[in-house]
Amino acid sequence: MKISKILSSTLLIFSFGLGIISCSEKAVPLSENHIIPKPLSVTDAGGSFALTGETKLIAVGNAADINPVIAIFQTMIKPSTGFDLQTAESGESNVIVFELESASQKSPGEYTITINETSIKISASNGEGLFNGVQTLRQLMPASLEGTALTVDKIQIAAGQIQDKPEYGYRGFMLDVARHFFSVEDVKHVIDLVAKYKINYLHLHLSDDQGWRIEIKSWPLLTQIGGKTEVGGGEGGFYTQEQYKDIVAYAQSKYITVVPEIDMPGHTNSALAAYGQLNPGITVPEKGAVPFDRTELGVDGMATPLYTGIEVGFSTLDTDKDITYQFVDDVIRELVEMTPGPYIHIGGDESLVTELEDYIPFMEKAQAIVTKYGKKSLGWDEIAHAKLETGTVAQFWAKAENAVLAINQGNQVLVSPATKTYLDMQYDSTTQLGLHWAAYIELDDAYNWDPTELDSAVKRENILGVESPLWSETITNREEIEFMMFPRFAAIAEVAWTKKELRNWESFSERLKKHTARWDAMGLNYYKSPRLVWEEKK
Ligand code: TNX
To answer: Could you tell me if the CB of 424 is within 6 A of ligand 1?
Structure first.
């Protein structure tokens, strides 16, 4: 055997050993992509672009806004290719151009990707648009890119153009960290997942009957006592202000805005267990009540036991006392100081033991405090019984009539119908995790609806966006979060991004099947929905 032959067969064996596939076969036409959420328009052109270790990355426009996106692209490509992609000032061929257009007509988040044999160009009017373009580009690359195994030595991407822009400016996901507490690392993992599907708001449900999860320096017992436990009696936990700021900054690095929620005046047992002064004198359901000796902490005798059950609607702040409004002011002030985003969520749901005549002035005062600190309020749909301030958004989860009350006051709604978007609802009667008070939500149920069809009075212009909440009464860890989210979360992300006329189940379910390979590469624990029809294996 000649030396060269020995060398090449050794190389062959070596590269097979590493599992490296040379992707020199023809690229899949752009129009046959499996992008979720579905883009506005896709056109094919001849040929393809080959991304190699030599591809150069070029910024055109304000470098401070572009460089973070280039860094994200470099980090995304490296694990499965080993490519250490370098930037360059300019270049004619084998380049990826990230362009921020100065006199752009594009709205925030909108982007265009143009691919030919010598270059790929992503253009947008802001960093968020470029980031969205990168998320699309990632889905044009092999599924193995989502993992860390070295499997590719060249990536072929078919030529053509993708023009894309979001239907709704607010595309949210909510995580309930109160019923069960999740670590900073778990929250960051969730941020990584939702960013891939162009979600741009992360709503954190930071307080509820079972736990207070955010450090408030002026009311330290909120976390010292109120953060001690969780549903089922586990050890609970809370974020220090430093940790919360770290989450906010991490989300921001993925163009996601954090919306912190303090649920009031109901869903407040964890606060009442810490500060009895806030308690008008209520009874905590016996099942799940955890009394503890608080004498050494000097807590007021009115303090309630901690609560580890899953009943709702039994707690309320005392809406008559000045101290309550001092509390609300301090909590919102400290939250605002560490929240760059425009919204503070003040809850307002299921305050079943607060009289409406007390609830209304309370929600009005809470909104005024948010406004005083320069932010806008979000509240669950019941908030619309109160007078809404300009810019307050009502989150429609249960009652269309409440959404209509908000709209009639000239305010917008964020749609999160429990029957479609509640990711804690079971898929079907055999699902082990989750609840089913609103519905069983299979994958197609999560997909086949539109925000404009919920109620004839809720029109496109009244809708700020779409959010899918994951309540955590039954969810205790990262694997369970993933299982309840995927695949339904991808369906709701498309409802939020892609206009109604462009969406259909056939197309979505075919594209989604291809995403399962990506999820396998990530090691994601997703639900194998029977609504996805797989071809028989021969
Ligand atoms: C209703 S949705 C709630 C939550 C529960 C959820 C469980 C809303 C505003 N309130 O407190 O966790 O149902 O599905």
So the answer is: yes
In ligand 1, the atom with minimum distance to the C-alpha of 312 is: 11
Q: 355: domain range?
A: 170-522
- Is residue 108 one of the residues assigned to a domain? yes
Quick one: tokens of 211?
A: 């736990």
Euclidean distance between CA atoms 465 and 461, whole angstroms: 10
What is the per-residue pLDDT for 290? 77
Question: How many domains, the chain?
Answer: 2
Residue that is written with structure tokens 């009394």 in the block: 291
- Report the predicted TM-score, pTM, of the whole model to 2 decimal places: 0.94
Tokens 């075919």 — which residue?
A: 510
User: What is the pLDDT confidence band of residue 292, given thresholds at 50, 70 and 90?
Assistant: low
DSSP string, 27-53: PPPGGG---SSPPSEEEEEEEEEEE-T
Q: Closest by alpha carbon to 328, among 175, 224, 219?
A: 219
| 428 and 499 housed in the same domain | yes
State residue 295's pLDDT score: 52
For ligand 1, the distance from its centroid to the CA atom of residue 216, given in whole angstroms, is 24
What CATH number did the domain enclosing 92 receive?
A: 3.30.379.10
**Same domain (yes/no): 174, 158:** no
Q: Please indicate, yes or no, whether residues 131 and 265 belong to a single structural domain of this protein.
A: no
* Same structural domain, 324 and 341: yes
| 392 and 415 share one domain | yes
State whether 150 and 175 are in the same domain: no
Tell whether ligand 1 has an atom less than 6 A from the beta carbon of residue 435: yes
Q: pLDDT digit string (tens) for 9-25? A: 444 444 443 444 444 45
pLDDT over 70 for what percent of the chain?
92
Q: Is 312 in the pocket of ligand 1 (CB under 6 A)?
A: yes
Q: Is 263 in the pocket of ligand 1 (CB under 6 A)?
A: no
Residue 7 has pLDDT above 50, yes or no: no
- 30 sits in the region (left: phi over 0; alpha: psi -120 to 50; else beta) called alpha
The atom number, within ligand 1, closest to the CA of 437 reads: 14
> Does residue 8 sit within a domain?
no
For residue 152, the cross-strand partners are 21
Residue 396 lies in a domain: yes
Ligand 1: which residue has its CA nearest to atom 11?
312
Minimal CA–CA distance to 386: which of 428, 358, 427, 424? 358
Give the atom of ligand 1 at the shortest distance from the alpha carbon of 416.
Answer: 2
Q: Does a structural domain hold residue 14?
A: no
